[in-house]
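QA checklist item 7 of 12: single-chain prediction sanity check.
[x] sequence parsed
[x] length recorded as 120
[x] structure emitted
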Amino acid sequence: MKSAANREIISSQLVRIAAELREMELVANASAIDPTILADFRSAVDHARSTAWAVQQRLVARDEQLDVYPILVRERVRRVIELCKALMQDLSSPQTKAEIGAKGLLYNAAKRLCDHLEQV
């Protein structure tokens, strides 16, 4: 009984949050937002989206014992690959030639990732 009640609570919360996000989208399109707050929000939404996707995969598989962590890791790897492709195009464009500092930070992060991948 507790599990059914929890599912109902979670389901109603998801419906409410989805409606709030749609409403926020309309407001956000019409007003100025602090970029830092927006970046934090986007990060939280992206994490929630990935987690929801992994949980959905478990539900579709109808396997309560299925560990969602490996699913999340696979999804993150897929997203990183997509972002790398997009970044290669973006960084080649004339508009980003002046972003030398950002390119240096990206290079250092990518190098750390490559070094770690060689070790695992």
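[x] summary fact logged: The chain is about 80% helix and 0% strand.
[ ] second reviewer sign-off
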